[in-house]
Structure formats: C-alpha cells, structure tokens
Amino acid sequence: MDQLIKDNMKLEERLRVGFFLLGKTRYSLGTHAVSALQLPTEDCEVEHLAHVITTPAILEGCAGDITYHTVEAKFEDPVVQVNGEQSEAGEEYNNRYSDDGVSQEGLRKRLPHATGNNEEETEVCKCEYEDGENKVQGSSKQKDKSTPNVLNRDPIRWFSALPPSTLRQAQKDFKAAVSLVAGCATTQLKLRAANKEFRRLHEIKSKLDRVEKET
C-alpha cells in the first residue's frame, strides 16, 4: 500500500509538470499550435510507439499457480531506417530536410542571374547550371547508396518541425507518467493477489478452528 501511494504521488507530480509545460508551449507557439487539431484523424494509419507488456508472476511465499501479472510499458525508437520500396516516407523526409534540397535550389537560382544580353555569358551560365545539377544528382545518388533512408515517427513532430524544449520536456514527463501507471497497475494486481491468498488461507483457518471445536 505504501508503494502504491508513493507511485500515485509521483504520477500526480509528473502529470502536473507535463500539463504546465504544455501550457507554456501553447503560450509561446500560440493557442492553436498544440491542440487536438494537430492530432491525426481516424482515417490516418498511425503506428503506436508505446506498448504494454504483461508477464506472469507468482506471489512471494505462495506456491502453486500464477497469481498475478506484472505490467511494463515499452517505448520504441521513433527513428527507423527504411530501405527499398518502403522508403517513400523516408525519402520525402530527407528531401524536405536534407542539405541536397537546399543546394539544388541554390543551383536553380543561378541561371536567372544571367543578363541575356551576351549569348556567351548565357551559354556559360547554362553550362554551370547543368554541371552543378549533374553534380548534385550524382552526390544524391551516392548518398542514397551509402546511407539508408531515415524516417522519424516521433509524435512530437505533429505539433512543430522544431519542437521547443518545453514541449520535449513535457513529452518526457508524460512518458514517465505512462511507466508509473504501469507500475501502479502491477502493484494493484499484486495487492489483489495477496488479498485473494489471504482470504483463501483465512477460510482454511476457519475450517480448522471449527474442526477443533467439534472435537
């Protein structure tokens, strides 16, 4: 019971700090930046990164069948590597945030700077543009062959591409709260098993007392 009370107090503190940090994030980014509008709809396929694992256990001092289950929260790594045909999302992410996209845009902006009055100048600009574009394509192909595509599935990116420190800390607090909930569930299951075992032993003792009185 003491352990359950301590875990509940820690859970309450974690949730309080997490919601307070969410309030600070909404104050800095805007009221609509962190809200239910950023959550995926029911039609979207979202892969869960948190799983609940239950393991059968036997109560201490109790021999026999399984008496309760331990509950544990497991969090998967949101950053995964994808290869082959399954890398469409990873390629889209890389094209959006990699340096190659910036360099390609920079090369494309070089051609309009030509004045157009001198044909030789225009031809030189075109050659530089084509050579630079070919270099960028070659470097991107080499990069694709050497490094696998990376896909970030972190739910915190639903709210901001560059999440502030308050939102990241709130995510850590809520993850710790999930782990504490699993710990509280384990303690409650253990208490129920102990109570059930106590009632069983109490019935046996009552039967023995009745037998002794009758004899």
Automatic annotation (TrEMBL):
One of its GO terms (biological process) is vacuolar proton-transporting V-type ATPase complex assembly. Coiled coil: none annotated. Pfam families: Vma22_CCDC115. One of its GO terms (molecular function) is unfolded protein binding. The lineage of its organism: Eukaryota, Metazoa, Ecdysozoa, Arthropoda, Crustacea. This is Vacuolar ATPase assembly protein VMA22. It comes from Petrolisthes cinctipes. Residues 85-121 are annotated as: Disordered. InterPro entries: Vma22/CCDC115. It comes from the Eukaryota.
